[in-house]
Amino acid sequence: MAERTVVVASSVGLHARPAKIFAQAAAASGAGVRIAKAGGQPVDASSILRVMALGVKHGEEVTLSADGDTAETVLDGLVELLAQDLDAVQDGAVRA
Amino acid sequence: MTAVPVLHGSGVGRGAVVGPVARAHPAPRIDPDAPAETDRPAAVAAVRDAFAAVASGLEARAEQAGGTIAEVLGATALMAQDPELVGQVATRIEGGQAAVLAVDRSIAEFADLFMAAGGYLAERVTDLRSVRDRVIARLQGLPEPGVPALARPSVVVADDLSPADTAALELDKVLGIVIEQGGPTGHTAIIAGQLGIPCVVRVIGASALTDGMEVAVDAATGTIVVDPDDALRATVAARRVALAHLAEATGPGATSDGHAVALLANIGTAEDAERLTGAAVEGVGLFRTEVLFLGRTVAPSEDEQATVYAQALRALEGRKVVIRTLDAGADKPLAFVTRAGEENPALGVRGYRLVRTAEDLLRTQLAAIGRAAKETGTTPWVMAPMVATAQEARQFAAIAHEAGVEKVGVMIEVPSAALRARDVLAEVDFVSLGTNDLAQYTMATDRLLGELVDLLDPWQPAVLDLVAVAAGAGVTAQKNVGVCGESASDPAMALLLTGLGVNSLSMSPAAVPAVRFALSRHTLDECRAIAGAARAATSAAAAHAAVLELMDPEVRQVLALG
Known about the structure:
By secondary structure, chain A is of the alpha+beta class. Chain A is 39% helix and 19% strand. Chain A has a 4-stranded antiparallel sheet with strand order 1-4-2-3, with helices on one face. Chain B has an 8-stranded mixed sheet. In chain B, strands 9-10-11-12-13-14-15-16 form an 8-stranded parallel barrel, surrounded by 4 helices. In chain B, helix 12 links the parallel strand 11 (320-324) and strand 12. The two termini of chain B are 32 Å apart. Chain A binds chain B through residues 12-13, 15-17, 19-20, 23-24, 27, 44, 46-50, 52-53, 55, and chain B through 71-72, 74-75, 78-79, 82-85, 110, 113-114, 117, 120-121, 124, 128.
């Protein structure tokens, strides 16, 4: 299992739009990605509802984990996503 | 189908229109005792299909919508295909729960999580519930709840519209709005009034109107006629022409003998102010600043506020602008100031009274206004809502002056302030009457209760008495008394107010042409006679009738005043 810890850069935290972009990317990876707040229970990262319910605010740390051959690459990509202000970027730019 | 007679309600605005009905459907009802599914795998498959169909429907609307609404709809669409949510629903159905209850309970669990997190997440509960309502409606074979996507310009008919429903309306395709519930000062009515969309609320029997029926909606008379004949269609068309003609007059408001009555606009945002750039209004009589604060978990900073106020002041290009400080509480709760557990929020810590619990909020806002004034080289008028005493008025004036605000006033919407307007005016430069709240507090009637709308009537003699006291105090003190409630937009009431000594009227910009026209056809003395006749009446209906009796018949006819 691979793991990464990253500080969420989105100015509004991991809410509606950033949560949508992140959950879509996690789902598309097919790597069973999970996300947890420091000291919290990990939840399915492809579930926008679980991700939003974490209530992650700007500047808070989250830990991502994933399984399988692609786990390392998938997590690198997701970490990069969370490290930018997802509220400011265009949908298309992130999906590409 | 049986013929539908003429339906009656309370009209908002003066417009009239003919068009096809598009019904907005209510949320489906859920039977709490629904039995387990007999074919559980089939029920699970049906639920998965329903979630998928709702998601693709929302995505399609997101693509059409654009902007903020598109983002909200897009995120809501993803919620509807959430693997955990759909998985939980499936597990519940397999465990023996009815499909509708499985959907309801699973979504309720996530809603609880969101509510517990508070702030921004709590507001998203509305989106979750809209997913629930859509999925359950689909399972029950009912039409999609909420406002439909409009294929052609239509008259939207609903039991009621939530603020969210109203925000989702494709306004360029909304010819008119007909609502069975609600009241003339409710959210939808105010928005419709601002946009000049003919709107009739409290329409008894509106449920008989079905998709595709042709209806004539007349906001001036508050009537809806099904299948209008050619004569009525011609009348509506002629009214639209006459009203469009009135809209061409652009001069300042005045009686026929030249007594000036400033005609001002009510706005809620800096964008509203920018829309007034070329408009024939003499300024803004009410800038409701709470829009800036709604939907926030913390108050906007002084910098952010100053930017918005400066933007609005600049857009008005030196015309008069009256800014009202934050009017939160009661029906306009805010996450960071609303106090839980007030039994009677309309009578609680709201409006200016927030100074007792959150003084910084007011000081920050006033400092931002002071900065915007300096930056734009303008002198905005600034007033506080819900002031009850002369002492509060004095305190507000002192805080405002400290923040660099020069022209200070207060709203008169509490009967005590109206009765003692003379003392209040000794402390401030001007007052503005909020007739909706003044009627609510005078008549002890919740302004959101449709069934009490007769008591809330601004023509009620007791309400007119209080307006007269306040206006008279302004005349004596030689200070400005304005009216910024909905009643300022009624041309007949505008004449009465002018006769009482009110010297500015603020309303939705769409209402200005009719008021300008009515004023221009009466002298100040005629307005005084009108006011006298209204004051002598002993009921709201008699006061209204007495005014109509004295009005120029042509004005009554063109404006369809009855």
